[in-house]
Amino acid sequence: MTLVLLYLVVLVLVGIVLFVVGSVLFGRGEVLPPLPHATTATVLPASGVTGADIDAVKFTQTLRGYKTSEVDWVLDRLGQELDLLRGELATVRATYGLDEPAIEHTVEGAHALPFDNARDDS
Length: 122
Hints:
- The chain has four helices and two strands; from the N terminus they run H-H-E-E-H-H.
- By secondary structure, it is mainly alpha-helical.
- It has a domain at about 35-100.
- A hairpin with a 2-residue loop joins strand 1 and strand 2 (about 65).
- The chain starts with a helix and ends with a helix.
């Protein structure tokens, strides 16, 4: 009977030690304090989004990454802001008779031409 009790005490002590070590090593991993329940830190101004606003965006972390609805919302807002700014720019260019800037195509980078078209240009 004492042997079983000893095994049980050792098992509980090992569990406590593993829990403490895991808590210290992994913790929550957050720099900011946790948000109140059912709230989000995903905030953008109604218009005039700046680079600092984008840098300040925080998404709620879920088990497999970020909350999809928040990421989709931010991308939709940024898309609307870009469309608005490009529309205003086109209006100003049309008003003052300015030409559209020439777009240079490069072989390298995220916006590269397909390989066949890039070969024809050189």
